[in-house]
Write a structure and sequence with these properties.
Length: 80
Amino acid sequence: MALALSRRPGEEIRIFCGDEVSDEEILLAVRGEGLVVRVDGVYTPLSRDPLKGVMVRLSIRAPRCIGVWRTELIDKLKTP
């Protein structure tokens, strides 16, 4: 199953692996399953029909050992 995210210009996602996963496990998972990022469309906040420029819908499929996070959530976790 893929994770679906909407991103506006300038917003980011981060793809990384935690310390609990060895380099060998990561390499085997990526070689076996790969990492897939697909653009599903460009949308406006008020429409589900693809339009130019306002928002991009991404689908990301990655092995379980790879985390996919919205940058604003990582920043929120770091804030005391």
